[in-house]
Design brief:
This is TETRATRICOPEPTIDE REPEAT FAMILY PROTEIN. By secondary structure, the chain is an all-alpha fold. Helix content is 76%, strand content 0%. The chain contains 55 helices and no strands. Helix 25 runs antiparallel to helix 26, helix 35 packs antiparallel against helix 36 and helix 38 packs antiparallel against helix 39. The radius of gyration is 45 Å and the shape is flat.
């Protein structure tokens, strides 16, 4: 047998080595065939498959070199570093150091590159490597490192020191140190006059031009440009000459050199270059003329020049198309501002808002960023999306704080009634721009009006009075009148009315005051006096307030009549705000009169006005809702939401749409849209109204995904930390039950206390059977709340590891903490004691389990019965098996118990009872009964 085993092992080893040898040959052949891509893949497989192979080193050597050839220098560096560390042969070590030096140079790791170069012992290899490193630094534009390397080579006259002079010249050229560039390029020409002659001449001429020696540069460029046949550097020289003579307006010379390069790619470059020169001179027509002469129509540089010239010439749509065509080019970043600016000029506000996230994905200057943010903010304001407008004006003020940007934020805060932010911004304005007069009136007026609308007339009064202490303004006095009326401060009203500088203003303010007091006839009388005075400065305000007055008096027919009379006297553009409110009051009046068609005709006019579209469309939908035409209203609400979802009325429209679904009995759609609303508007004040569904409903239905979704929504919609914590704990529990571990660590991290985080981490690791669970359990032992849980977990862990003493220790801790330990712990203690042959304690534990009559009662009783059986304590064993025999719906247990009882009866010579049990066993399990056949 031993001999056979040895032969078998030898055979298996030979198979293994044969497999390795064949695999190595196969990989080696790929290298010989120069199929490096396949060789690399197979080499990696070989290294993993045969970690102990004698070919490991040579295979790694090949793999590293292929990575180097394929320019995967990071991978090459990793492998060469390992080879270098283990290599003992100096020549091979030098080779690896050479590769490491070059790889690190190409990775721009300057210090590492020089370190490995200096580790090379062989002088020739060192000098070749050092030059290669310098060249690599230059190629990676690491000019400072290249400069040091080249200087060392030249100073020490290493091999290639002459070539290094040219490299050093190029380095200085890159660093814009043109004098030194010229010096070293000249030194190179002296040492190697026939090498790279044209390139060196070109670089020297370029350096002269860059340092301002234009005339000397011209002679050198002309010498190069007139080489026949033309070369790469002669054409490049011609381009410089075209630029120089264009700046000097020497058209004959420009034409001459253009003809020299006609039919080459440099000709197209020249056209673009001349076009760019005319752009800098703001001669955009001439620039476009040159751009059009280029055949390189897909060149992004050319397209950008064309687009910019068209933009400056006011041809916005053509320019926009060209700027947009640069999306996948390096010029797209430069085009972004112009795309936004053109769209704003073309009033494409919705497109600007839709594309606003682009600025997060591109790199533009801070000036362009500020301008784009301003365009987005203005566009949002134009379409009535005040929330978005405020967000962007706020960003603008954060990066470019000035009074205009701050005023815009204050204006939007006042319109949105964001009182906390308005308070902060108003204080900022007074601290930073206390001497401002340009925006002061509007800042105080809008802020005061906002406090008044928000139900704080006292604060509004303070703000108006602060302004009026320094200045006199009818609008501010008018607003102050409203606050004083609200607070019934009639004496003060008279005091501030006296500030008005003319009789018309006094009458106007009296009319406003009377309207505020609900004295509508008196207000009308005062407004008529203003109109009779012929004061045109107040006429439009009086027109609007007469209509407001009739509307407040619920004299809707008169409101309509007055409104329609005045509309023709207002300019929709110049008086846009008053005009839109006039349309609104007429529409609302028709609405209150139940004349919905007429109301809709006015709301349609509002909907056609830029910045008021959403309000007009919402009111049209509302008119159908009021008519109880819920299907029509629903479709229109949905349209408003889809088009203006980010606005206040967009949110309101979605809410009303969901209500129409409820009213029409469309339950499925109601549920779907309600859930979507919570996603779209997680902070909406309408969320409580929108849904009454609870997480428990989903849990009870077994839909854990919906339950988690609901919990997340609930957390997003509350500031109550206890609710958030409870929701997070439920989500973790649901995910553990479902074995859905995605984002579970994120949820655990969100729990506020270390205790809770450790507890749920322990549950997570336990489900995953991750050994990290032990550390979490041990940490939990310090917390009374989770000590029982942790001790049970540790007991189970060590029980499964068969470390019974530790298992018993932690189960014992559990029993100490929990005065009424559950049957599971007692059962496990019984098992542990039984395995240690501590049968007395095991019986005590099992008895404690089956005394509870729980799920483990039968198992514990069976274990105890078997212990008694082993101890030949027939009396106790028989008692327990008799009880087990009586257990219902467990055929195997019954059969086993009968078998034991037959045996005990026979031992007692109670054949009659034994026979009775035997007959029962035959019916239940004939095979098991067979062993007792001889007794009966």
């Amino acid at each position: 047998m031993r001999k056979y085993l040895i032969i078998s092992l030898l055979a298996s080893y030979s198979i293994v080595f044969a497999g390795e040898s064949e695999d190595f040959k196969a990989v080696d052949n790929l290298y010989k065939e120069r199929n490096f891509k396949a060789a690399l893949v197979e080499s990696e497989k070989f290294l993993q498959k045969y970690p102990e192979s004698k070919h490991q080193k040579s295979m790694r050597d090949k793999v590293a070199k292929i990575y180097f050839l394929e320019k995967n220098y990071k991978k090459a560096e990793e492998i060469f570093k390992k080879l270098y560390t283990i290599e003992e042969k100096q020549s091979q070590k030098d080779e690896y150091a050479s590769y490491l030096a070059r790889a690190n140079a190409l990775l721009n790791n300057s210090d590492s590159a020089i370190f490995y170069a200096r580790e090379i012992k062989d002088k020739k290899t060192f000098q070749k490597t050092f030059f290669a490193v310098a060249q690599n630094f230059l190629a990676k534009e690491n000019n400072e490192a290249a400069q040091k390397a080249y200087k060392e080579i030249i100073d020490n006259k290493y091999e290639n020191y002459k070539e290094s002079m040219m490299g050093l010249g190029i380095v200085y050229y890159n660093l814009k140190d043109y004098d030194k560039a010229i010096y070293w390029l000249s030194e190179f020409s002296k040492e190697m006059p026939k090498e790279n002659k044209e390139m060196v001449s070109y670089l020297r001429a370029s350096a002269l031009y860059r340092k301002g020696n234009t005339d000397e540069a011209i002679s050198r460029f002309e010498e190069l440009a007139n080489i026949e046949p033309s070369t790469e550097y002669s054409r490049k020289a011609a381009l410089y000459l075209i630029e120089i003579y264009s700046n000097r307006k020497d058209e004959a010379k420009v034409t001459f050199y253009l003809n020299r390069i006609k039919g080459t790619k440099e000709y197209n470059t020249a056209m673009t270059m001349i076009g760019d020169l005319y752009v800098t001179k703001e001669n955009y027509d001439k620039a476009l003329d040159y751009y059009n002469q280029s055949n390189d129509k897909n060149n992004p540089k050319l397209i950008y020049g064309e687009a910019y010239s068209l933009y400056k010439n006011g041809k916005y749509e053509e320019a926009l198309k060209k700027f947009q065509s640069l999306k996948n080019s390096d010029y797209y970043n430069q085009s972004i501002y112009h795309i936004f600016a053109i769209n704003y000029k073309l009033k494409n506000f919705d497109e600007i808002i839709r594309d606003r996230e682009i600025i997060r994905k591109v790199v533009v200057s801070q000036v362009d960023t500020d301008n784009i943010i301003r365009i987005i903010a203005n566009s949002a304001y134009q379409v009535g999306n005040y929330k978005l407008a405020k967000d962007y004006y706020g960003r603008l003020f954060a990066v470019s704080p000035d009074k205009e940007n701050l005023f815009r934020v204050i204006l939007l805060d006042s319109q949105m009634l964001d009182m906390e932010d308005l308070r902060i911004r108003f204080n900022q304005y007074n601290e930073l721009y206390s001497n401002d007069t340009e925006f002061k009136k509007d800042v105080y007026l809008y802020t005061g009006d906002a406090y008044y609308k928000a139900g704080d007339p006292e604060r509004a009064e303070q703000i108006y009075k602060t302004y009026l202490n320094q200045y006199t303004n009818t609008e501010v006095i008018s607003s102050l009148m409203s606050t004083l009326l609200e607070q019934k401060k009639y004496d003060e009203m008279q005091q501030y009315l006296s500030l008005a500088q003319d009789e018309s203003s006094v009458n106007y303010l009296k009319g406003i005051a009377a309207m505020g007091l609900g004295k509508y006839d008196e207000a009308e009388s005062e407004f008529q006096k203003v109109l009779a005075s012929g004061d045109q400065s107040l006429s439009t305000k009086v027109y609007l307030n007469r209509v407001r007055n009739y509307f407040l008096a619920e004299r809707y027919n008169e409101a309509v009549q007055a409104g329609e009379q005045y509309l023709s006297k207002l300019s929709p553009d110049k008086d846009k705000v008053i005009y839109s409110e006039m349309l609104d009051k007429i529409g609302l009046s028709y609405f209150r009169l139940g004349k919905y068609d007429q109301a809709r005709s006015y709301y349609s006019k509002i909907a056609s006005m830029k910045g008021y579209e959403v309000y007009g469309k919402f009111q049209i939908a509302d008119s159908y809702y009021n008519e109880k035409n819920y299907e029509k209203a629903g479709s229109l609400y949905k349209e408003v939401y889809n088009q203006f979802g980010e606005t206040f009325y967009g949110e309101q429209a979605y809410y009303k749409y969901i209500m129409t679904l409820s009213l029409t009995g469309n339950t499925d759609a109601f549920e779907r849209e309600k859930d979507n609303f919570m996603k779209v508007y997680p902070n909406s004040n309408l969320r409580g109204t929108i849904t009454n569904l609870t997480t428990n409903m989903y849990i009870e239905s077994g839909d854990t995904d919906k339950a988690i979704e609901s919990l997340n929504t609930s957390s997003a919609n509350t500031d109550d930390t206890s609710v958030k914590e409870n929701n997070t704990a439920k989500i973790i529990t649901l995910k553990l039950q479902k074995k859905d571990y995605k984002d579970i660590e994120k949820y655990i991290a969100e729990l506020p206390t270390e205790e809770e985080r450790v507890y749920y981490s322990a549950q997570y690791y336990a489900v995953k059977k991750d050994p990290k669970v032990v550390k979490e359990y041990e940490t939990l032992l310090q917390y009374d709340k989770y000590k029982a849980y942790a001790s049970k977990g540790l007991g189970d862990y060590y029980f499964d590891k068969k470390d019974l003493s530790k298992a018993k220790k932690y189960y014992g801790t559990y029993a100490t903490v929990n005065k009424n330990p559950d049957e599971y712990i007692l059962y496990r203690l019984g098992q542990a004691n039984e395995k240690e042959n501590n049968l007395k304690m095991a019986l005590t534990d099992y008895k404690a389990v089956y005394s509870k009559n729980g799920k483990l009662a039968n198992d514990a009783m069976l274990r105890a019965a078997e212990i008694y059986d082993k101890q030949e304590n027939v009396a106790e064993a028989e008692k327990l098996f008799t009880k087990l025999y009586a257990v219902k719906n467990n055929k195997d247990l019954k059969a086993y118990s009968i078998e034991k009882l037959i045996y005990y009866k026979l031992v007692k010579n109670n054949t009659k009872e034994a026979k009775k049990l035997y007959n029962e066993l035959k019916k239940l399990d004939a095979k098991r009964a067979e062993k007792f056949k001889a007794y009966f």
